[in-house]
């Protein structure tokens, strides 16, 4: 069936980053029959923004504008233009600047190479600057004057900053409602398996957990870190979690740290300016700094049988914070998070975190997206493989998925996004360094029912 503006299109994971973006671009290109299915509504708890309804504004900021490779890098201009100017996004982007630094000589050399590569670009070259010592760093990031930044060098990008993750996705949700997109959330929106045509094995819809059949001409699986546990991806994606902590500041402290740039150091981690989190009860508003450590991520391997697997197989399966709101992070991770505070925010080195949690994404071996038609089931599309760096593309990722659906994606991009089992190992490669540890071997993170 050729794709027309009246084709029925289902997006599974439609309240997540890539799913909602896909729906937005479909609407803007005139498609009129779109249905989103998702476990949670907006803001969703899906991997790339790690937020959760039950936890309120849990994912309050994500980096926007840092350097990115592959397709994500190629669409940077569209991405940043939309963050700055598109009415759906512009109120949720905070251009406070970003320092991307390192102390280790090899890491500095990598940063220097990526800096030099941008110098030939007419626009990017004007936005970045190389900072080669403490003084230069402090000029742009005065709050690091007391930080442990000896030996740091790196790239200052003044046209970058952070996005208010939950609010931005919510804004997309409002726009989709305005366009009349249908949405089913909860049990009735939870994917069980694709609905197949008996004769052709073509995908003709989705069966949800409540047993309902949803028919469609195209089904897009934008299911983030859940993808490999829902559809057998033959090892192309390995889902991992990273960890996050929140520090609470008084208003006086927050005022002093307001508008600090995003500071990222791949040997340590990263943090954001304090964000005001309003509360409906007076006196309960809060100022929160979100911070993360940098490490190879954690897997959670278990036996499960995704659609398409003839028998149970080992897959790293996320455990969502929404379903397990009391989960925290492994003990060893707490130590790394404390280190981020010591290095970047020493004033608060003795302050306890008000919250720590895990945020899931799914890696491909080459960190490029998996945007393709399923080889065995025409009509079924994968829009996953975020590889940890896709939230920044919330405004633009969907344009790429829609290009794929419309057959407009370039041969080069189709090749990059292709179904590609065996081309590298997403568990061990793509990030260098140590392979990820498994949550099953770590203590201190699971709380509540099934500790
Ligand atoms: O600039 C960005 O794309 C932010 S990546 C944030 C991060 O926590 C990674 O640092 C981590 O390694 C993982 O990919 C999850 O996302």
Explain what this protein looks like in three dimensions.
The chain has 451 residues and is of the alpha+beta class. The protein has one domain: 3-Layer(bba) Sandwich (FAD/NAD(P)-binding domain), CATH 3.50.50. It is 24% helix and 25% strand. It has 12 helices and 25 strands. It has helices at 17-28, 70-74, 76-85, 105-118, 124-127, 134-140, 165-178, 227-230, 251-257, 331-344, 397-406, 411-417; strands at 9-12, 34-38, 62-64, 93-94, 98-102, 128-131, 153-157, 161-163, 182-185, 191-196, 203-208, 213-215, 218-221, 238-249, 262-265, 269-271, 275-277, 286-293, 298-299, 301-304, 313-316, 355-363, 370-373, 380-384, 437-438. Strands 5, 6, 7, 14, 15, 16, 17, 18 and 22 form a 9-stranded mixed beta sheet that branches. A hairpin with a 6-residue loop joins strand 23 and strand 24. Helix 1 (17-28) packs parallel to helix 7 (165-178) and helix 1 (17-28) packs across helix 11. The radius of gyration is 21 Å and the shape is globular. The relative contact order is 0.19. The structure holds 1-S-(carboxymethyl)-1-thio-beta-D-fructopyranose. The site of 1-S-(carboxymethyl)-1-thio-beta-D-fructopyranose has 9 residues, from loops.
């Amino acid at each position: 069936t050729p794709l027309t503006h009246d084709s029925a299109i289902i997006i599974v994971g439609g309240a997540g980053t890539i799913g909602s973006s896909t729906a937005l671009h479909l609407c803007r290109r005139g498609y009129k029959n779109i249905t989103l299915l998702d476990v949670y509504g907006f803001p969703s708890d899906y991997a790339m923004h790690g937020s959760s309804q039950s936890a309120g504004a849990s994912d309050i900021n994500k980096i926007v504008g840092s350097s990115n490779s592959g397709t994500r890098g190629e669409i940077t201009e569209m991405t940043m233009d939309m963050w700055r100017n598109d009415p759906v996004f512009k109120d949720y982007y905070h251009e406070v600047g970003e320092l991307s630094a390192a102390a280790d000589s090899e890491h500095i050399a990598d940063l220097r190479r990526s800096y030099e590569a941008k110098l030939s670009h007419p626009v990017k070259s004007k936005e970045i600057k190389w900072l080669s010592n403490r003084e230069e760093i402090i000029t742009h990031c005065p709050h690091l004057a007391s930080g442990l930044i000896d030996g740091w060098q790196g790239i200052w990008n003044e046209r970058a900053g952070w996005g208010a993750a939950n609010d931005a996705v919510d804004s997309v949700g409002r726009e989709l409602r305005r366009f009349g997109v249908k949405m089913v959330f909860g049990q009735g929106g939870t994917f069980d398996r694709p609905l197949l045509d008996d004769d052709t094995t073509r995908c003709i819809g989705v069966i949800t957990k409540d047993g309902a059949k949803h028919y469609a001409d195209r089904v897009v699986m934008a299911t983030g870190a859940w993808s490999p546990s829902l559809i057998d991806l033959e090892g192309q994606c390995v889902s991992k979690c990273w960890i996050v902590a929140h520090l609470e500041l008084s208003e006086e402290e927050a005022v002093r740290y307001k508008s600090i740039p995003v500071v990222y150091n791949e040997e340590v981690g990263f943090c954001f300016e304090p964000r005001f989190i309003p509360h409906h009860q007076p006196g309960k508003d809060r100022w929160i700094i979100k911070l993360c450590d940098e490490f190879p991520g954690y897997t959670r391997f278990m036996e499960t049988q995704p659609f398409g697997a003839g028998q149970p197989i080992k897959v790293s399966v996320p455990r969502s914070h929404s379903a397990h709101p009391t989960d925290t992070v492994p003990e060893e991770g707490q130590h790394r998070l404390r280190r981020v505070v010591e290095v970047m925010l020493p004033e608060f080195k003795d302050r306890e975190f008000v919250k720590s949690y895990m945020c899931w994404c799914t890696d491909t071996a080459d960190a490029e997206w998996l945007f393709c038609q399923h080889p065995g089931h025409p009509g079924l599309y994968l829009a996953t493989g975020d590889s940890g760096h896709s939230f920044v593309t919330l405004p633009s990722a969907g344009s790429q998925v829609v290009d794929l659906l419309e057959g407009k994606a370039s041969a080069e991009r189709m090749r990059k996004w292709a179904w590609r089992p065996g081309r590298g190992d997403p568990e061990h490669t793509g990030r260098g360094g140590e392979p990820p540890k498994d949550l099953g071997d770590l203590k201190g993170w699971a709380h509540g029912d099934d500790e």
